[in-house]
Design a protein that fits this description.
This protein is mainly alpha-helical and 218 residues long. The chain is built from twelve helices and three strands, in the order H-H-E-H-H-E-E-H-H-H-H-H-H-H-H. The radius of gyration is 19 Å and the shape is elongated.
């Protein structure tokens, strides 16, 4: 980040963004102990803004603070992961049912979602797990956004951080899965284009089962 740009960003925000990025990308896996001094050194900041950032991340359930010892990255618990998956199925399934009921053509939906699938192809080809996880989240969020239900979209946004962490956790040990996920996303898009809400729900369940539930044994 250029010096002029860095100066415009509050110190605590810089510490927050860096630490959160390290957690969501899997560079700081669940259970990792980190210190204020470590992040202060990386960001070239004092410990005070880092402490503020840690408190904010604790409020988001990404860190658990231990006085005089540091902070531990909170892992995504199996039970919490299943909760996220159930919410995703409910919200995305409801979104597609609403889309399927529209009388007008889906010319403002299908091309946008197709673009979000295409954005996954390059990170899948290069094995860029972090960028792929961001593109994956954008596609699934795009489905909910396309329904026009602003409340559902806001609720879905609260799952974004956990969703990205879960994708990184699932695909990092299996980089060959990236191309498979792109094809599964294409199949989901085909169901939307066909206004096949039931077929979408079945395909989504299989997609989430294969990607995430096999990792937790559920």
């Amino acid at each position: 980040m250029p010096a002029t740009s860095r100066a415009q960003v509050p110190a605590a925000e810089r510490a927050y963004v860096l630490t959160k990025s390290l957690i969501l990308s899997g560079q700081l896996p669940g259970g990792t102990l980190i210190s204020e001094g470590e992040i202060a050194e990386r960001t070239e900041l004092s410990r005070t803004p880092v402490r503020e950032a840690f408190l904010r991340l604790q409020a988001e359930d990404l860190l658990r603070l231990f006085p005089k010892r540091g902070a531990v990255v909170v892992p995504v618990a199996p039970g919490e992961a299943e909760d996220v998956l159930e919410l995703r199925e409910a919200l995305e399934g409801a979104a597609v049912r609403r889309i399927a009921r529209r009388e007008e053509p889906l010319d403002d939906v299908v091309p946008v979602l197709a673009g979000l699938v295409d954005a996954q192809r390059e990170p899948a080809r290069t094995g860029d797990v972090v960028t792929f996880a961001e593109a994956d989240t954008a596609f699934h969020r795009g489905i909910v956004a396309a329904s026009g239900n602003a409340l559902a979209e806001r609720i879905y946004d609260t799952l974004a951080d956990r969703q990205r962490r879960m994708v990184v956790q699932a695909v990092r040990p299996r980089p060959d899965l990236l191309d498979v996920l792109v094809e599964e996303h294409t199949a989901l898009l085909d169901r939307i284009a066909a206004r096949d809400a039931d077929g979408f729900a079945e395909t989504l369940r299989a997609h989430l089962d294969a990607t995430h539930r096999t990792m937790t044994g559920r």
